[in-house]
Amino acid sequence: MGRWDKIIAARRENVLAALRAIREQKLRSFLTCLGIIIGVGTVIVMVSLIQGFNQRFIAQFQSFGATLVQFQKFEDRFGGGGPPPEEERLRPILTLDDAEAIRRYAPAIAFVSPERWQFQNVDVRYRANRTNSATVGGVTHYYPDANHHFVQQGRFFTAGEELHSAQVVVIGIGIVEALFPHVTALGREISINGRPFRVVGVFEKKGGFLDQGADQQMVIPVGVFDRIWPDTQRTYGCVIATIPKKPEWVSLAMEQGAQILRDRRGLRFNQPNNFAIRTPERTIRTFQQITGGVSAAMIVIAGISLIIGGVGVMNIMLMNVTQRTREIGVRRALGARQTDIRQQFQTEAITLSVVGGATGVAAGIAISKLVGVVSPFPTSISLAAIVAGLVVSGLVGFFFGTYPAYKAARLDPIEALRYE
């Protein structure tokens, strides 16, 4: 038998011995590895949630067009983020005239859609049915093309209806399900904050993030919107959604639109923009920075659990060294070297930790799948997180098993044989 064959055989025997010890002392082994199980399981669940959030968020934003460029007064803030700073509050609003200027003087831009949105205090009814979760937009007839948000049933309102502020509405599929569970929505008259509107179209299904998102939207001509919510025009103005003529012209569309707005606001070359520009890429990157921060915090918590688990592994291995002192003396008397003893105990510690890590991986996958089934939170199992969990648990066993292994290897053979 060659040298490497002997090493592999010795390692295999050590691993089998460790697995036998785990099987014989199930409760003690479980309690020893509990910290590692919790730490690795936490990492698996956290990564699956964050990855699921990122994938859903990216899919939602890209469903409105990967080339969407939107000009707005305020910077994006996720999760509320508190009130905007004073500099943003003092910015001039974007207006319909700004949108018209971009449409006329930005040759790289194909469609321009000025929009106002009302997210709160919206009461939508059809006979006895009602919904309070609707978002109402005041838009122009350019909205579908500029937002890749097209009508699936019926039609969008026309330029003529927009010009005469006709009381017509296009609604999302989520509103259809709430108001018209058994009848067609087209041609029906609904009430928006007490005003009658005729449904002329139903948007295609988009899906959403945690809620139904775009499927809960409804849009009306901007003139009618301003009569219902005049404060929105004065306070927030509008956002201006644009689409470049070619996908590779996103940067050019941003530059041309920004320059037009800077010229209209009289900004000098050394003054920063007093408006915000949002693209799917920028928004996704900001969101991922936030989820990355959450991930870092969760990893710290998981790391604490792993350290506690490592201390438990070291304690149990020290106890094993004490209980097996005579065994160590017998092995040394039969010719075992210090290296053999050290490798035996270190292999047992690593095996114990990896078993705990594998249990944590299994628990994390099960919890992630359960969360994905019973809650609106999206999850996505990461193979990289599974591998990392097993590797880290092995490293914890190696690190915290080193001291007990060296202590066992340094025992005096004669004293060990005399130990009772």
Characterization of this structure:
The protein is an alpha+beta fold and 420 residues long. It has 15 helices and 12 strands. The chain folds into 2 domains: 190 residues, no CATH class; 210 residues, no CATH class. Strands 1, 2, 3, 4, 5, 6, 7, 8, 9, 10, 11 and 12 form a 12-stranded mixed beta sheet that branches. α1 crosses α2, α2 packs antiparallel against α11 and α4 packs across α10. The mean pLDDT is 83.
Count of discrete domains: 2
Oligomer: single chain
Distance between the termini: 36 Å
- Regions with little confidence, pLDDT below 50 for 5+ residues: none
Radius of gyration, CA atoms, in whole angstroms: 32 Å
Topology as a string of helices (H) and strands (E): HHEHHEEEEHEHEHEEEHHEHEHHHHH
Number of strands: 12
The coarse overall form would be elongated
Question: pLDDT average, as an integer?
Answer: 83
Q: How large is the count of helical segments?
A: 15
Descriptive key words:
420 residues; alpha+beta; 2 domains; twelve-stranded mixed β-sheet; 15 helices; elongated
Write a concise synopsis of the structure shown.
This protein has 420 residues and is an alpha+beta fold.
